[in-house]
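Predict the assembly for these two chains.
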Amino acid sequence: MAMTEQRNVGASIPRKEDPELLTGRGLYTDDITLPGTLHMILVRSPFAHATITSVDTSKAAAMPGVVAAYSGEDLAGEWAGPLPVAWPVTPDIKMAPMWPVARDKARYQGDVVAVVIAKTRAQAKDAAEAVDVSYEELPVVVDIDDALADGAPILHDDLGTNALYTWKLTNGDVDAAFANAPVIVKERYYIARLIPNAMEPRAALAQANAATGELTLWSATQIPHIVRTTMAAFVLGVPESKLRVIAPRVGGGFGSKIRVGPEEALALVLARKLGQPVRWVEDRSENYLATHHGRDVIQEIELAADENGKIKGYRVHLKASMGAYLLLVAPGVPLLGAFLYCGPYGGDAYHFECTGVYTNTTPTDAYRGAGRPEATYAIERAMDALARRVGTDPVEIRRRNFLPAFAEPTQSIGGLMIDSGDYGATLDLALELVGYDQVRKEQQARRDSGDPKQLGIGLSTYIEMCGLAPSRVLGSLAYAAGGWDAASITVLATGKVEVAVGTTPHGQGHETTFAQIVADDLGVPMDDVSIVFGDTQLVPRGMDTYGSRSLAVGGVAVHRACDKIVEKAKKIAAHELEVSEDDLDYANGTFSVRGAPDQARTVAALAFSAWTAHNLPDGLEPGLDALSIYDPGNFVFPYGAHACVVEVDTETGEVSIEKYVAVDDVGNVINPMIVDGQVAGGVVQGIAEALLEEAIYDENGTLLTGSMTNYGIPAASDIPAVTIGRLETPSTSNELGVKGVGETGTIASPPAVINAVVDALSVFGITEIDRPATPERVWRAIQQARESQPKGGQQ
Amino acid sequence: MARVSMTINGSTHEADVEPRTLLVYFIREQAGLTGTNVGCDTSTCGACTVLVDGRSVKSCTMLALQADGREITTIEGMASGSDLHPIQKAFWENHGLQCGFCTPGMIMAADSLIREHEGELTEQDVRLGLEGNLCRCTGYQNIVKSILAAAEEMRSAPAAPTA
């Protein structure tokens, strides 16, 4: 059933979410109040690696307002098992999951060692400082290579090693591709560790009903359904139906709220134990230690090419830090990029291998892009290196290697069946919007005059995979859950439409976007459509939001549920109008008899008929209700070309972005304004990765970038406006032709920025700069290059 | 404990508080106005921005006792009944928010900024003026657009006084 004439889909309709949020009436987890709520504060290890020799909570327990204080030993009996790891990527993976409270050792600065519950937050904080924990410090290892070296301190004694898995993928004959290649480019990059910094700190509010054993958890989470299933079964050991998880308004996630967390587990268990609701809200500096970090990956990438730079083979080796313990999907995060180190390019052979490593640092897990920014960074930086090697420019090397434009699913050498792509078209538009030739002219003029402010231009032609995911593929990758999603539609007696959708937004505008689809499919006004999400009691079926899946999976489920509604309504319409279904046309929510269009029924009117059930066809159930659970047949593959122009002050090392162009093809667009917003936000996070952000540990495992005062999150004055271009080629993966866009900006931008910086610095012969390319790093690189240049050299 | 009394959005709120109570917690917990948010513990993020006697203040940098006798305006006080303030309207029309968590603070800071500039401000003025308000979702450009649009409307048809 084709979609009815588009009226809302494709329009930049202002969001239904906004009136509530604009007036401060949105309820985030910490805004929800229950009578008698107690406050939970966690005592965290200041040491990155230490044996816990004793925990004395007696002084804390005696302080004003304190209801209870517990050590890990005190609570050991509460747990059915550790916090779940849903992605054991290899059969021989050396698993070290996290328990809600550490008992024998603290393994990262921030590891929970004790819990205090009091009547007020201030009382709990005061008491937490009175908990007496004795530690015996152990040697610390924070660097990936150090953790893999012989004699490294071992985090998990029972495992005997810090290397927990090695996962491999090979397509084609890699040795042959490399053996005779006239050109081999070998690059090494380090993707620095990042702190996600969603603006809303994580929070949990738990309530227990002693009579029924029912537990309710409000949580700042992206994954209420996954929390419900895994927390109930694996951590608490209670029936799944006894746990209700509610994600109210959530203030941003970016992957950092994909957690089945110790704090949630503790709040639930203690609410039950103490018979009163328990609230936990993290401080920002606690968030820096305790909410997972992103990235922290060492990459080696080799390209084997012919003398013209046409790539024959790819070889990639990663070493990825998991931090001190394994979190929910952490082992698989680097693997989400495993198939993408070839970018949008061709070749004959491909090898990818990744080793996961434990270090005494905050555990890592998904952060915007999750594995795909790493892949794009490596290939897009290596492409520029390849261009330099064969003496051509970054535009030409990419055109030479692009897969030719295709409209039908096409196999890539990385092993993906890519839905559709015209990589040259996005590059053409990006070059036009950035004024490429003009920038090169200006750049040359400044080079000729020895201007202290040099220009650089960098490209990133990316492809990513999202819309997680075909369940069978997840199964083959040893991911423990499915990749479907669900939409349940009820058309009420009065024609209003309620849609329960299993994805869980935290700023992406699902209420609006999904309503646009429903309004068009059922021919009802946007105001008559309510989208419900986030509460496992109201939305029993869902797989939540991450991996840019909500539209490509959830939205398709919404559309298919509408199709089922229309199909059923048609039966009722045919019956009421006394014609056969084949004689009915359907448009804009109205069934009309072909040739006698005044004989018509609207979906809204038919909903009333379905409710009274006075005159339904024999055998047809009352109601206009439909459930669709959609398991995608393939991922979706957004792609595009980003171009970044930087000006580098060669005297201070400061980099400023003069222009940033993002051209993306994300398939059919439901709400252009929302899509542009995702691109802008994603690009800025990626620019920040490239120029500002880095989580830094010292050799003792102390997080030096421990608060917002010294971790480089950008403010409005730090970054430019992004020029956004768009092409729309429908995805062949689903009938809406839609892809995802939540992560594309962050995936594409870091290499565009760094390629631009390197381009600017090429006047000094510089070909590499670590990220973030802070003024100090750039300045030092310039000094070093000047020192090593023969006298009379440039600049 | 000490007694404090302040006016918030035109209503008087009076309570006994521990001297160390921050204004933001008084607003959220005593007055029950949860629109103002706590986003950090270093006065960096600005999610807690309110107006104190008409000027923007990060309410995490003031003790509740310091607000004794003062007039506070929070996000809940910006709309007039069901009529949104021009800044709220502009944010809505220009997609100036995604998750909404920084938004109340942004709007209060924007109100102060626009009035300080008497409605005449450039993109650069806005970006510099918002250094104390962090957003992780939008990349700022729609926030800037929203504020410039609101400024234009406020210039040509001044809104009712907000303090």
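The CA atoms of residues 100 and 137 of chain B lie 9 Å apart. The helical segments of chain B are 23-30, 86-93, 103-116, 123-129, 141-156.
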